Amino acid sequence: MDHSSPPPTACTDPSLGRGAEPLLLRVRQDPPSPAAATGGATSAVEHLGQLSAAFAPYLRPEPPRLLEESAHGDWVRQRWSAEIFPGMPFGVYVLRPTGPGPSPTVLALHGHGASSASLAGVDDDGATAGAHGRLGVQLVEAGATVVIPDMVGLPGRRGAAERPGTQCQRLVNHLGLFGLSLSGARTAELNGLLGQLAELEVDPSAPLGVAGFSGGGQIGVHVALPHPQVRVLALSGYGSTFAQGILAIEHCPCNYTPGLARFGDLPEVLAAFTGPIIVEAGRADQLFPIGGVRATADALARLGRSEPGHRSGDPGAPPPVTLIEHDGGHEVDGPALTQHVISALKNISCE
Hints:
Blueprint: H1 21-29, H2 34-38, H3 44-53, E1 62-72, E2 75-83, E3 89-97, E4 105-109, H4 117-120, H5 128-132, H6 135-141, E5 145-149, H7 167-176, H8 182-194, E6 208-213, H9 215-224, E7 230-236, H10 266-270, E8 277-282, H11 290-303, E9 322-326, H12 335-349
Parallel strand pairs: 4-5, 4-6, 6-7, 7-8, 8-9
Antiparallel strand pairs: 1-2, 2-3, 3-5
Organism: Zhihengliuella flava
Region (Disordered): 1-20
InterPro entries: AB_hydrolase_fold (IPR029058)
């Protein structure tokens, strides 16, 4: 009996099993200059911007293509194929309300062991779909347009050389040899996708938020901090301090952003984001422990999350971080997180 997996199709896996091989080949053929790879950043925001900017020579966006569309009551789900790095198409779900009036936009990012399907309500990821709580569906039903891409190196875009459970290690190693990072590649690709919102039939002027689960939360931070268009940041299953999270518990190597801790622990990094921050955490989460998440929230309250000299009570200072706790483990709960995200984005639209 043949137990091999069926070949990918354009709708189920627009990457067609190509993985990141085209990017790795280009980097080997045309390595970045030492200055581009090492930078000289003086802040976390500048550093994160440099990690993604180092991939600028390898970008060549192509117009996205609509593959399929289905109606689900008062919203529709579209499947698109996008291409930011040449030769590396990938799948993007867009969930959009069908009701009248404008809607805010949320870039929703999946975690490890899953693909965009687990956020978009397409339950073909087995057990991994449950951890994401169909967050994209919750957001669109609350009135947001949701953009859900497959991230490079994770299920939905795995090349033949990238075995399950090892693909991130291989990409981290190969890119790191040239002074590049997998987190930078993921961020650069997502920045390119945000530049194509209009081509995805998404209003580029609508208030924009980023919501990420687990490793998607890490990349959500990388996208949100340097990107002036992102106004709201929501993290689920991510948010422990480095000291109590990724430095205390072994994680996938892509969770360790090169050089980031030179600018402080996670609270000091997040303090540079001046919009609302919503953090959801499970009290039984063994990967990003609740104690570390509470420490992040407490530190952010003390830091004020604004320019030097501001305090959280000063006029004009950003709103305090919102911490939402639930009784589950490493998983999205969703309803309260969705409510806070939509409320924050709607408040921005009224400014």
